[in-house]
Design brief:
477 residues, alpha+beta, BirA Bifunctional Protein, domain 2, 23% strand, binds 4-amino-1,4-dioxobutan-2-aminium adenosine-5'-monophosphate, binds magnesium ion
Length: 477
C-alpha cells in the first residue's frame, strides 16, 4: 500500500486508490471526521471513520495532537470544504495526546503563550506556515547566489576579531571562571585558554568572507551570528542567521543593485512557491489587525505588499538628504521623536528609519553615504573625508534589513582609521594583508535572515520566526 503526504493526496490524482497516511490529529468531530495533518501543507486531509466498525476504546484515543496511521480509499468528498477525503478502513494510534495536558488545543493561543511552548508551537498552523516559508526562503537565497556565480563560504563561528567593533560579543573560553589563571598584573591569562588567546562567537562573517572574495570573486555566507546586545526588542535576537555576500570589483552602486535584485528575487521565490502558506498568513494578519487601532494597521494585505516590494524600485537617498527630510518632518517639529534630529551626524534610530519608509517614501529605501563616525572601521572613506560608502536598506514594518558597504581597500587609509579607533593592527594582520597583496575595490552586505522572514510572513515579533529564539534571559530548549 502506498504511503502519501497530505500534500500529495490533495494535489495528485489518486481518486479511488488505497492509500496510507501518517500524521497528527488536528480535530476529531462527531466521532466521525478526523482532520489529519502531516506538516507537508497548511491543509488537512479529512478522514471519515464509520464509528460502528471501530473499537470504542481505540476511537477514544483519537484526540487533538495524537499521531495516527490511517489507511483507506481516497474518494470525492460529500461535504463542503474539501474536494477529497479518505474513507478509513484501518486506523492505528502511534501515540496519544492527553487532552487534559496537551497544550495545543484547537482554539486560538496567544503568540506569547506559544513562545513558552516553543517545542510544540510548530504543531499550530501559524508556526508550521512560518517555518515552511522560512525553509523556502533559505532555499531561495542559495538558489539566487548559486545561479549568479557565487560560491558558498563557511565563515568560522569562533573568532578572535570583533568585525563590527561594537563589543557585543559572547566570549568563548574553557578557563575555570571561578579560578582562572592570572598574569603578573592580575589580569586573566588567556594564553592558557583553549586557543591561547581571547575568542568569541562571531558577530559577522564579513572579514573572513573578504579574504575569499579576493580570490573567488563572489562569495556569500549564510550562517548563525551572535550578538550580546541587551536590547529586548521585537527586531533583535542574540543568535540570528545572516546572509553576507562579498564581491571583488563591486563598488557601492553595484552592491546596492545586487542587494535590491537579491531581495526581490527571494521574495518572488516565496510568492511562487508558498502561495497556500502566504494566503493563510495573510488571513491571520488581517484577523489580527482588526483588533488594532486604524492608525497601526498596515495599508496592504501581505501578498500585495510582497508583490509591491518585488516589482517596484527601492528609493535611494543619501544620509544627508534623509537628515534634511527628518529635520523638517512633522514628528520632529512636534517633538514626537524620542530622539529628536537636530544635526547632521546623528545616528538614525528605528523610529526615524520607519518614518522615512512608512510615512515619507512609502517604499523600501536604501540610505547611503553615512557619516564615518557612526559606521564600522572597514567602510571606504569618501572624498569629502567625513562620509563613508555605507548603505542600509530600510523596510516597511521592519526598519533596517540590510547593512553593507564598499570596503576600504587602501592600506594607508585603513591603517589610519584603525589607529584612530584604537584597533590593534597585530590582531587584524591578515585583514591588512588583503590590502597589501592584490588589493581591489570590493563590497558586500549583510541581510538579517529573520528580519526577512518577519517581512515575508507579516509576523510582528522576531521571536516567532526562528525555531528557538535566544534573547536576554532566555535560552530554553
Ligand atoms: O548592519 P550589520 O551589523 O552589518 C554587519 O554585520 C556587516 N558586517 C554586514 C556586511 O557588510 N557583511 O548587520 C547586518 C544585518 C542588519 O541589517 C540586520 O538585518 C541584521 O543583520 N541584524 C540582526 N538581526 C537580528 N538580531 C540582531 N541582533 C541583529 N543585528 C543585526
Ligand atoms: Mg547595521
Amino acid at each position: 500500500m502506498n504511503s502519501y503526504s497530505v500534500k500529495e493526496l490533495l494535489s495528485e490524482n489518486l481518486l479511488l486508490q488505497e492509500v496510507t497516511i501518517n500524521g497528527w490529529v488536528k480535530t476529531f468531530r462527531s466521532n466521525r471526521f478526523i482532520a489529519l495533518n502531516d506538516g507537508s501543507t497548511i491543509h488537512n486531509i479529512q478522514c471519515v471513520v464509520d464509528f460502528e466498525s471501530f473499537d470504542e476504546e481505540l476511537l477514544k484515543q483519537v484526540n487533538t495532537g495524537a499521531a495516527l496511521k490511517i489507511t483507506g480509499t481516497l474518494v470525492e468528498s460529500q461535504g463542503k470544504g474539501q474536494k477529497v477525503e479518505i474513507q478509513v478502513s484501518g486506523l492505528t494510534v502511534h501515540g496519544e495526546a492527553d487532552p487534559e495536558t496537551y497544550p495545543i488545543q484547537p482554539k486560538k493561543h496567544s503568540l506569547e503563550f506559544l513562545r513558552e511552548k516553543a517545542h510544540l508551537r510548530i504543531r499550530t498552523n501559524t508556526f508550521a506556515a512560518i517555518m515552511r516559508v522560512r525553509s523556502a526562503l533559505s532555499f531561495g537565497v542559495h538558489q539566487y547566489f548559486q545561479q549568479n556565480g557565487f560560491n558558498y563560504f563557511h565563515a568560522p563561528i569562533i573568532t578572535g576579531s570583533d568585525a563590527e567593533g561594537a563589543g557585543e560579543m559572547f566570549k568563548v573560553s574553557t578557563l575555570d571562571s571561578k579560578n582562572p589563571p592570572v598574569t603578573e598584573d592580575g589580569e586573566v591569562n588567556f594564553k592558557e585558554d583553549f586557543f591561547g588567546k581571547e575568542t568569541n562567537l562571531t558577530v559577522s562573517g564579513q572579514l573572513e568572507a573578504e579574504t575569499y572574495a579576493m580570490a573567488l570573486g563572489k562569495v556569500y555566507t549564510f550562517g548563525p551570528t551572535f550578538r550580546a546586545e541587551n536590547s529586548n526588542t521585537s527586531r533583535h535576537l542574540a543568535e540570528f542567521w545572516m546572509i553576507e555576500p562579498e564581491m571583488a570589483f563591486f563598488d557601492l552602486n553595484d552592491n546596492m543593485d545586487l542587494a535590491e535584485d537579491f531581495i526581490k528575487n527571494v521574495i518572488t521565490y516565496v510568492l511562487d512557491n508558498c502561495q497556500d502558506d502566504l494566503q493563510f498568513l495573510e488571513k491571520r494578519l488581517l484577523d489580527e489587525e482588526k483588533t488594532k487601532p486604524q492608525a497601526e494597521r498596515s495599508e496592504m494585505p501581505l501578498i500585495e505588499k510582497l508583490k509591491f516590494v518585488s516589482e517596484n524600485s527601492f528609493k535611494r537617498v543619501t544620509y544627508t538628504e534623509a537628515i534634511d527630510i527628518l529635520r523638517n518632518s512633522k514628528p520632529n517639529k512636534k517633538k514626537k521623536f524620542k530622539y529628536p534630529i537636530n544635526e547632521w551626524g546623528a545616528d538614525l534610530q528605528s523610529e526615524h528609519e520607519r518614518f522615512l519608509v512608512e510615512k515619507h517614501f512609502k517604499c523600501p529605501v536604501i540610505l547611503f553615504d553615512y557619516p564615518a563616525t557612526i559606521k564600522a572601521f572597514y567602510m571606504r572613506l569618501n572624498e569629502d573625508g567625513k562620509t563613508v560608502r555605507a548603505m542600509d536598506i530600510l523596510f516597511p514594518g521592519i526598519g533596517e534589513i540590510v547593512g553593507g558597504s564598499q570596503r576600504e581597500e587602501r592600506l594607508d587609509v585603513l591603517k589610519e582609521k584603525m589607529s584612530a579607533l584604537g584597533i590593534d593592527e597585530e590582531e587584524l594582520w591578515w585583514y591588512l594583508d588583503l590590502r597589501k597583496f592584490g588589493s581591489a575595490v570590493h563590497s558586500g552586505f549583510g541581510l538579517g535572515f529573520e528580519r526577512l522572514v518577519l517581512f515575508a510572513t507579516g509576523m510582528g515579533n522576531i521571536r516567532d520566526v526562528i525555531p528557538f529564539p535566544r534573547t536576554p534571559q532566555n535560552a530554553e530548549f
